[in-house]
Every structure is written in C-alpha cells, then in structure tokens.
Amino acid sequence: MNKILLASIFWIASLSLFAQKEITPIAQDEYRYANAVIRDYSTQIELGSITSMTVKQYKLVTVLNSKGDNSALCYAHYDDDISLKNVEVLIYDANGLLIKKVKEKDFKDESSVNGSTLYSDSRVKYLDYKPTGYPYTIAFSKEYKTNNTAFIPTHRFIPDYDVYIQNSSFKILYDPAEMPLTVKEKNFEHFEVIKTNNSEELTYSINNVKPIPREDLHLPFQEMMPTVLAVPQNFNLSGHKAENITNWAALGKWFSSEILSERQELPASTVQKIKQLTANIEDPLEKAKIVYKYVQDNTRYISVQVGIGGYQPIVASEVDEMKYGDCKGLSNYTKALLEVVGVESYYTHVEAGRTKVDFENDFASLAQGNHAIIAIPYQDGYSWIDCTSQINPFGFLGDFTDDRNVFVMKPDGGEIVKTPAYLNEDNYQLTKAKVKFTPEGEIEVAGNIVTKGTQYDNRRYLEQYSPDDLEKRDKNYWSSIDNLKVLSHKLNNDKEKVEFSENFSLRGNNFGTQAGERMFIPINPVSPITYVPQRYRSRKTPFQISRGYWDQDEIEITIPEGYQVEAKPENLVLETEFGTYKMSVKLEGNKITYTKDILIKDGVYPKEKYSAYRDFRNEIAKAEEKKISLIIKK
C-alpha cells in the first residue's frame, strides 16, 4: 500500500473528527492578545503524476472578536483546470456546540475577478456568514484536483497577524523519481518548525505560536511569516509539459519556447505603419519610444484571464484587431511591434504592487508574479516599459513595479534582474507659495508644486480627474484652510523630464487665531507634515520605511498692515539615521519666509530603534504646527 493511499486513509479518518457535533470551547482569557485561535491549519499535497495533483486543506478556527473574522473566511477557487471535490463548513457556538452545517451547494458562487476583466474562467465559491456573537468556531474542509502541477500552493504557517497558532502543518506526498521537488524554506529562523523528510513524504509543522501583532510600519507579511514554497521540477501546464526545470534559466527557455512562441504575428498593414513611424531613426531606444506611444494611443487595458492557466498571452494580431488586451497580451503585442523595427525586447514577469516583493533568486516557479512588463536591453542594462499604462512616460515604472527582482525571459534562458529604484532624494517635491491674509482672517494663497520620482507617480493621476473630482481632492488636501475655494489649479505633466508641476490659487477664511491685540498664524498653512507613527509600550517586530522622500517648502507670508511680529519659532535642525529636518523662519520687512527641508531615508530597522524614529517624527510634527505671534503696532 503506497504512502499516498495511506495518507488518504488518514485524511478521511481525520475528517471523521471534522463531523463531530461539539468541540472543546476556548478559554478566552488565555488568548487575550489574539483576535482568533488557529486550532488546526493543514495542507496536504498529493502529486500522483506529472498530470495529477490533489490538494486537501483543513482549517479549524475560533474567532474571539470581530477583528478575527478574516481568519475564518472560507472560499475555494476553481476554473476549467481545477475540479472541486469537497467543500464543507461546520459552525460552532461559544460553547462548542454545532449550530450549522454548510455543504458546497450552499456556498455562493461567482466570478473571482473584478469588473475590469472582459472574460475569465476563474470562479470562487465562498461562505457568506455573519456571526451573531463571539466567540464562534468554524471548521472548513476543501479538496480539489487539477492536471496542472506547475503550482503547488504556498503554505504560510501563520496566515494572519494577531492570531494564536495551536497547530499548522504542510505535507507533500510524491514520487521523488518521477516528480523531484525544488523546495524553499523561508523565515524559519525565529520559529521552531518541525521537519520530517522520508522517501516519499515531506512534512512541516509548528505548534503553539503566540500572536504576531500588526504594528505600524511592519515589514511585508511575506518577509516575516514562516513559509514553505515547493514546485515540481517536472510539471504540466495545461498540456505543456516541462522537465528538469531547476533554475530560472531553464524556466525562461521553456516558457519562451512553449508558451510565448508563435504568438507575435501582426497584420501587414500594421507592420507597414510601424515601419513608417520609425523610418530614418537609428537609435533603438528612440524607436522603442515611438512604438510605446503607438501602443498607448491605440490600445487600452482590459483583463483577460483564460487559457493555459492565465499565463499565455493572446496573439498579437488579435490585440491589433480588438485594440485591447491584458498585461500579457499588451506586452506580447509591444514585443512583436518592437521586433518589426529591429528592437530586441524580453517578456518579463513581476510581482506588481506598492509593496515591493522580490522573485526568489533560488526558487524558479511560475507561481511568482502577477503582472507582465517589457525589458529592452540598452547599453549595459535595461529600459523598462509597462504596456498597460496609457499615461506612463517611457522608461518610468513608478512604485507599482520599481526596485524588485523580476523574471526576464529570453529565448536562450531566463534571469532574475532588479528593476530601477527610486530612492530617497529621487522622490522629490518642491512647494513654493505666497500667502496674504487680513486681520479678519481672509486668506489668499498662490503657489506651485513640482514633483519627481514616486511623488510624481502619486500626483500625475490628478490630470485624469474630472473638474469636480479634482476640486473635492483639493479641498481635502488643503483642508487646513477653512471654507476653501479653489480659484485655479493648473496641471502640467512633462513626460520627457518625468516631472509633474501644478500652479494653484486658493482663497479661504478663519485664518489664524485672534486674541485681543494679538493674532497667531501657522508657519506653514500650505503643506505641513504632521504624521507621527503609532506609539507602542513595547514594540514586538522590526519596522520598515518602505519609501524615502525629499520635500522642500518655501512659503512667503505677507504681514497685514498695522501688525508686526512679536515672536516666531526658533530655527530647527534635526539629524538622525532616519533622515534630516531643517526649518527656518526669517523676517524681512513685512515678509515672513518659512523654509523647510525634510529628507526621510528608506530602510529596515530593528524594533529597538522604533522609539527613536517616532521621537524624530514627533519633533517634526511639533515644529510644523508651531505658530507665529503677531501684535498690533503701537
């Protein structure tokens, strides 16, 4: 009797416990720092062959309060390649008594993609349960079978913050001769993970792990929690079989030949048009800029998630005809156009999002990545383009795909490459303004803002706003000015310089505070920085400043006639390992000039330094909120 059969018998036996009518209730006072208790969280993978994988998962969770509800979510994804075999939930009350049993037919069933997706075969069944009280317990069991063996589910032993783990385990049953594995163990160093590795069975488990708190400025989840990643070196992806995939070079070569090949045919009319647009241009990067603008002007992004696990792009001729595509289709289309004009480029997978997530250098797997972009070799490096954006400047990635390891696929092999980083001083904002006000509190402000780097990325979307939406945003941004009226707000996006500039004119009232013959006005009514991270009596985890930036302000305030400065804040200089802050207030005639220079440095810091960083930000906030005292002239 083989081990997979034995394990299946054991799994069935364990599910007999799943069906019990009552369970032992949780003593809440023993878990007062937890939102939920994960009593059992197990995943079992059965690799029957290169075209057969069965996944069985079981979760027993007691939810202690409303913040723990997410730990009890029950859902099962499926598509044309995934067949659900068993989905069931048991719900218990605070006393551990069974109050509800939910079969698969009672789950809600809907598309698992959002409204921006044109079509997809990906669906999800989920439990829509609203608890009537706490604590409650959910036992969730699901099983599915698939012929795609390229993606073994990643097991994070701790699935969320602020949960206590009683038991969490991961097991893979496989034939090492037919299905050798590449396995990566992450973040084990601070946890007692028990590992057993027999001839056809690999098992990991952890027990009794106290809650890890969700703290301000925490590190990315995937960089903290113990995790096992696994992938067969021989696998099947919707009929495309791979063998001996042990590194990124082999995976890139296979993907290029099996998945990307014969997808770049274009109509003759488009070939002729793109050649005409680039005629008499020799520099490959200048040609690429023209091609990129052509794609931006003639296509739009629509998600399409079908076929070969959602990994194969639709052919370039279809994108050309329909004028839309997803990240895969648009990247492949752009690559085809570049090839027509003799510019080499490479299809690239990236894990996109504001949180920087690297591909693992020593773990080659298609499960990594959620987005496709293009890498264009130029001089000694690459120029990068995101083909889904109709507004990105050429070569600008922004904070969606910057500063992370990505998978560049070449016909002769793949490689891991780091995308450009926008570091500290690169992320620049300059604000200049002139402020005039009356003793009655009426205020007028005229100024301009220039942004670069990721600060450019955060503000260039303003030009996509309708006039009404821009006005709503402005009233929120300049909310320190009462009864704000935006007289004008003009925008200019310089894509050549990758620089966004704004000219604005504002009016409001109730400026300053009257106290007899005195008037108190803020030193910076335009762009104060008052953020202070949350205070903790005892910080538990390291912290991260994920993106540094550099801001400079120059605010000129005209003193109204009949008033003079009685007192002003002292100049201030703060220098720390986290950054610097310089502030000065200068008086010349009836003009007060406030200047600020703040540089925040990105980095990962130990928990022991959190208080020092918080003190630094607190000093900045206090300085930004200081007042100037004016008094009537006598």
Features:
alpha+beta, 634 residues, eight-stranded mixed sheet
Explain this structure.
By secondary structure, this protein is of the alpha+beta class. α4 crosses α6 and α5 packs across α6 (327-340). β28 and β29 (499-509) form a beta hairpin. Helix content is 17%, strand content 40%. An 8-stranded mixed β-sheet has the order 5-4-9-2-1-11-14-13, covered by helices on one side. An 8-stranded mixed β-sheet has the order 28-29-27-26-33-37-36-35. A 5-stranded antiparallel β-sheet has the order 23-22-21-24-25. The N and C termini lie far apart (103 Å).
In brief, what are we looking at here?
The chain is an alpha+beta fold and 634 residues long.
Taking pLDDT < 50 over at least 5 consecutive residues as the criterion, the unreliable ranges are: none
Question: Rg, please?
Answer: 29 Å
Helical fraction: 10-25%
Beta-strand percentage?
35-45%
Largest sheet descriptor: 8 strands, mixed
**Helical stretch tally:** 9
Question: What is the molecular shape?
Answer: globular
Mean pLDDT, to the nearest integer, reads 93
Total strands: the figure is 39
Derived from helix and strand composition plus strand pairing, the structural class reads alpha+beta
Strand order of the largest sheet: 5-4-9-2-1-11-14-13
Q: State the end-to-end distance.
A: 103 Å
